[in-house]
């Protein structure tokens, strides 16, 4: 179909060129010139289009590269056409047609591709329920994000504008969307336009920038009404989904790692796998926030057995239910009990003979421990000592106490315990 459309456009271009040359009154003596060269022109054009790969792309993604290919095809074919015309038509031939025709062909063939792309990108207006969105970053990434938003089905976002710290960009527009100003205008623009979503589309210094943007919201209630999201960098996109080409699809809420003014540290998991795989692991406090996440990750490294110790029955029930769906038969053991129970500890070590102990059971709520220091000492200090002594007596290879970070220059009972 694309080939047929180009064929019609090239034919029309050559035909209309003769009529334009003679003000739409083609003299009879020039009609043979048109008839004898028509097939030559059309064949040369279509062969050049095919040679320059105009039929391997998609019209909806037409770009400057496609326009360059069309230009090259028309110029190269025009050289062949001119040579053949002068060779075959020694007599009457309107030479200005050789100038008018390639210009018209370029406009028609290139134009229809960009019309199709434009109708795809600007086919409708955002609805009344569209999210009012502000994009911070008017660079290449911001422009790509805007185009992705414009191509969304149903146009779920209404872009109110861009913000960018580069003063040279202020007052300009990208695809019709204005660049309103810099970060100092964030609070004002959000209030004036009722912005519901701020999308950060920058590739550098994101941690510092995000922290500063959040600080610019003077009113705490305003921050609750506005979602701040970020666009992943190219490396993040490729790591998550190498086949993805849409920035907007990878948009997400701000994470803690985004607030770091550096790249997050990546742990080499190969030594961890060698340490855990095929061994028996005991996790205390396995139902807590830290213990549960440790248990999830340890199970991924295929231990021979994972023993979960937890004194909170509900928490133990849920982590057992979750991990049982992933664990192999006999791989998971749950023990309901208190880490302060020395008899229970002795029984666990005799029965399961763990090679590694991850001790995550600890009272970590500062205000509660300030009011109940005796519980902090019993659970965080005495129970840890008892567990470590039992582990040493049974020849455990490694014992990791998760809460040692609290003991670094402690400022409260919880840390000291």
Account of the 3D structure:
By secondary structure, the protein is α/β, with parallel strands linked by helices. Helix content is 50%, strand content 13%. It contains 16 helices and twelve strands. It has helices at residues 2-21, 31-51, 64-88, 97-121, 140-151, 186-193, 206-216, 220-225, 234-240, 269-276, 289-300, 313-324, 342-352, 366-371, 373-393, 413-416, and strands spanning 131-136, 157-163, 173-174, 177-181, 197-200, 227-230, 252-253, 280-284, 305-310, 332-336, 356-359, 398-401. The strands form two sheets. The chain has a seven-stranded mixed β-sheet with strand order 3-4-2-1-5-6-7, sandwiched between helices. Strands 10-9-8-11-12 form a five-stranded parallel β-sheet, with helices on both faces. Helix 12 (313-324) links the parallel strand 9 (305-310) and strand 10. The model has no long low-confidence stretch (mean pLDDT 85).
Compact description:
The protein is of the alpha/beta class and 417 residues long. It is built from 16 helices and twelve strands.
